[in-house]
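Quarterly update from the structural biology core.
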Amino acid sequence: MEKTDSRRPTGLLLVAVPVLLMAWLIIWPIFSAIGRTIWRPDANGETGFTLSSYVFFFSDQYSINNLMITLWTTGVCALFLLLICLPIAIYLRFSTGKIPAYVQALAIFPMFVPSIILAYAFIRVLGPNGMVDILLNSVGLPKIRTPYLTPWGPVIGMVWDNIPLTVLILLSGLGSVSNQSIEAARDVGAKRLQVLWYIILPRISNSVLVAISFAVLGIFSSFTLPYLLGPASPEMMGPFMNRTFREVNDPINAITQAVITFCFCIAFGLFYVRSVARNQGK
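Predicted structure, tokenized:
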């Protein structure tokens, strides 16, 4: 007991540094941004409480459209990530040999490709007069309707960009599913979908929640891929904030958009914290 008590100050000092950095670099800017949007001078120069910037955001149809397209893109990306990554993770977990190793390498490969390179490759392949159009024209087929500069452009890019992290988290969760439980279910006549629904999914529900939370947090506030691949209007919140701050020169409304984005992200962040706390309690 005395040895444990003697180590406690050292542990608290080790934790204090990252906690202070987080408070300085993250927590304080958040409160500062909220304060700058709700405590501002009025037309007479008197400083006081006001919600005018938030009223403007939620009464402006263009801002609402940008928020809706951000929510739509985030939801569609999360759905596609789950549909694509869950089968890959299950295949990697219960397969052996060289082919699963190659599949895992391909699934993790997007992690090493910068977003700017991904956007350039997307434009060269699926953009107007890109590689796909050239191949189709060479065999006498019409051009495809390119997703470039449409809402589907950022969806394709961000799904591809988030596959590695999602697969790795799901694969980690599948480590808690033993082969014996799968074999026992099959011995009593359970089919593949029944094994998935009653054996696998209940045991990886926390991992699915964590994977989707990470993906949603990254996608909702992303900038590079929506800026390079998405439409000019409506635009996602990341490019919207940048344009409001730099081109419109309106820092208060840009900060207001950032606070609203943060409020949506913190809801998904709480899902992650709740999931981690539940695992710690087990």
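The longest helix spans residues 2-38.
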